[in-house]
Amino acid sequence: MKKPKIVILGAGYGGLMTATKLQKALGVNEADIVLVNKNDYHYETTWLHEASAGTLHHDRVRYDIKNVLDRNKVEFVQDTVMEIKAEEKKVLLEKSELAYDYLVVALGGESETFGIKGLKEYAFSIVNVNAARRIREHIEYQFSTYHDEQDDNKLAIVVGGAGFTGIEFLGELVERIPKLCQEYDVEQSKVKIMCVEAAPTVLPGFDPELVKYAVSFLEGKGVEFKIGTAIKECAPDGIKVGKGEDEIEEIKAGTVVWAAGVRGNAVIETSGIESMRARVKVEPDLRAPGFNDIFIIGDCALVINEEINRPYPPTAQIAMQQGIAVAKNIAKLMRNQNDLEKFVPDIKGTVCSLGDHNAIGVVYGKKLVGTPASFMKKVIDNRALLMIGGISLMLKKGKFNFI
Amino acid sequence: MKKPKIVILGAGYGGLMTATKLQKALGVNEADIVLVNKNDYHYETTWLHEASAGTLHHDRVRYDIKNVLDRNKVEFVQDTVMEIKAEEKKVLLEKSELAYDYLVVALGGESETFGIKGLKEYAFSIVNVNAARRIREHIEYQFSTYHDEQDDNKLAIVVGGAGFTGIEFLGELVERIPKLCQEYDVEQSKVKIMCVEAAPTVLPGFDPELVKYAVSFLEGKGVEFKIGTAIKECAPDGIKVGKGEDEIEEIKAGTVVWAAGVRGNAVIETSGIESMRARVKVEPDLRAPGFNDIFIIGDCALVINEEINRPYPPTAQIAMQQGIAVAKNIAKLMRNQNDLEKFVPDIKGTVCSLGDHNAIGVVYGKKLVGTPASFMKKVIDNRALLMIGGISLMLKKGKFNFI
């Protein structure tokens, strides 16, 4: 009898969790499992702001996928997903194609620029390892030109968006800038860091007291916030923002990092599955509406928080929980049990780092700032490693600089 | 009685040697000595190719000038020299001016682009610390863009000139490239390094057997030599070279480093002292013709090697020997002894490094290659530190990775 074929697309938090849980849940003879990923490594999306600022080397934020796979049970295919043909139950990759009986779509998100002119071309987004090291090098390069060109604008950095990624990136930047100033003999007063946010507040959804703490910490380190200010256009030498009713203000900057929007993966949009900004409002068991053989998790999935009737923000925490749930549900399907589990996120906490030694957050309902929050952030970061790769991976790649 | 005022312009090998020798030779009451330099640090010009390639950090190639000065005897002024008014016996600095009784011009050289179109704008020259770290960062930045842009041309590096600096820089590059490939996940076969030289040979003036050794070593590491080939033009994306009689060949490269020409400092040219490419054919006692109170040393001085009736190439070795000679001659003038010493270079040897573990050279008339040559190169590098700053500076900044 032919074994069912399970294909997992993407080795981010959700996909890799699905694969590692399935390899434990299923016997070798129960299914063929294939994991497809563009790179041969997994990266910690939630650590990319550190690699982008240059405070943590990009090799610290990634690890070989093969290290966490049981190769007897899971086949790894390094390739890029081009198209999901849902009606034909197959996936087109760049170099080959794969038929499936069950598909797990865990392709991650993409930056959403909302059609703002020039953002795609001239702003960086903290989306993957390649982007992160390019941002790091771009900023360093601006500094390296300073002595020849004496152009303060080139040193300026604009962060678009005061959400989670924007604020965490700013936290790393204020740690990094003094080191760059020393490295390139630049006076620190020459370096401007600005955060531009269209919404009326920093970190919308966060406790206002914690937000205030974060803002005054970052302002104390020299960050200027322009809140309620929309970016209208991005150019190679800076941005234009709206000012009052009709006015436009130009802000010169050598580096613009866009950290304000996430959407699902564009592959979703040609799959025949209904979506909005490439995110699919999944069924309670995480399947795509109308497709009993397709599970969608992570940034491509939209799960409604019924308490507030708004979608949960896509986080690593939820993606991993979804991976666990999908692995269970697929194991049930393999065994012809049709009582699939309904997925409900279990939000243990949210911590937003402010550099390596400070943070704000809520953990198990308790508000934290400063060293305790920073400690918890590292515990959370290490937990992701532990959950996917076990204790050896955590010890190898974890963060233990607790003080 | 007013003390005579000795002004030394430039704290390179020649100027700093003059200052440190004068502070030993003269008593506090014999003269006022002022050393003027743009930066508060001295840098090892002969090590800049390492900082440029990124094989040695730029802080390793520089040290604080104050560390080697006796502040009771030498006043240090950090400023930029704008003009020498030889007839008025004064020097205009950016922020002030200085009158002198005796002037030592040790301002170093500049890159000579021979009017080749675009070289000044788009090619880098290994001229100082600022330039070196900019070259390093420029190359890294090209690598960091590779995964997004997949443009092999951006990885390509063209070195213009197969003289001493060009060859030494190539030696460092072939060590650095494998590390950059690893850092940015780039296949090494994608990276092209090319050396373009208008002259009919690599390292003109060097022993042909040694030249052959150097070329085959570098070729073995992937360097392509285009000898007898003149650069006609430089653009942001590469160079154009002459091919045959009238043809032009385009060579794409993300980085072009021009290492083919040195001239004296432009300040010379408005001083009223006769010069050619800002180099002054000095009198045997190192004074400028027609000016008994001005000594000129280092890259701005032209000293003829009478054995072959051609100028000595400007080297650190000669600049330091000139500094010693000038300090002696000035001490004589202070004591009204007019039998000034005639300067004759004492060439102990010349070693051209090929990375950190290989080199070619002639030392005390003996030809060396490989580890012994590389060892001698480091001895020479350390000797410069020892001669100017004594044993403590040598131990602090020297190169002791002999194997």
UniProtKB/TrEMBL annotation, chains A, B:
<dbReference type="InterPro" id="IPR036188">
    <property type="entry name" value="FAD/NAD-bd_sf"/>
</dbReference>
<dbReference type="InterPro" id="IPR051169">
    <property type="entry name" value="NADH-Q_oxidoreductase"/>
</dbReference>
<keyword id="KW-0560">Oxidoreductase</keyword>
<keyword id="KW-0285">Flavoprotein</keyword>
<protein>
    <submittedName>
        <fullName>NADH dehydrogenase</fullName>
        <ecNumber>1.6.99.3</ecNumber>
    </submittedName>
</protein>
<comment type="similarity">
    <text>Belongs to the NADH dehydrogenase family.</text>
</comment>
<dbReference type="GO" id="GO:0019646">
    <property type="term" value="P:aerobic electron transport chain"/>
</dbReference>
<dbReference type="Pfam" id="PF07992">
    <property type="entry name" value="Pyr_redox_2"/>
</dbReference>
<dbReference type="InterPro" id="IPR023753">
    <property type="entry name" value="FAD/NAD-binding_dom"/>
</dbReference>
<dbReference type="GO" id="GO:0003955">
    <property type="term" value="F:NAD(P)H dehydrogenase (quinone) activity"/>
</dbReference>
<feature type="domain" description="FAD/NAD(P)-binding">
    <location>
        <begin position="5"/>
        <end position="323"/>
    </location>
</feature>
<keyword id="KW-0274">FAD</keyword>
